[in-house]
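Sanity check

After download, print the first record. It should look like this:
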Amino acid sequence: MTQLYHEVGIVVERRTIDSPWADHAWAPIAVLPEPPDLAPWSKLTGTPERQQFYLGPATLTLHSVDTAHFRENFESGQAKLWVAVRPTGIEPALEMVGVTADPFEGEVFCENVDDVVEAVPMPAAVARLVLAFFEEHHVEREFVKRKRSEHDPRKGGGPRPRPGLERGEG
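Expected structure tokens:
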């Protein structure tokens, strides 16, 4: 399996919210094609209600077995990168979980309910990199539907019990 690693930069935003349980919320808002010459947690822009920070670098890993997933990402109309960050409860407030161009891996990021996952637009330079990787490594695989084998009671188990009296109920 061929892999390609590419460093990107992650931008997050701290938004003031009106809630009895929290005074702010964090969300990834952008991916930079390359990490800038900034220290992690550098403040970029903002107002008191919305502040943007450079979270730091992250590694985008492309796997040759995922090229069909990359194609689905581009066929959606607007290619995305899925960014997952995790609140730490201490300083710094967030830690990087991952970034991916694979929509199915992005869905897996959502399994941890404490993580904040956002699909952000894929920068043009990263899109060219992913498309070049796709062109070089994609192998079209034919879909083969499995055939179900007939149940053979001699190989373990009997027929399924039927509901009602035949199961010994009543």
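If your output differs, re-run the checksum step. Summary of this record's structure: Residues 124-137 form the longest helix (14 residues).
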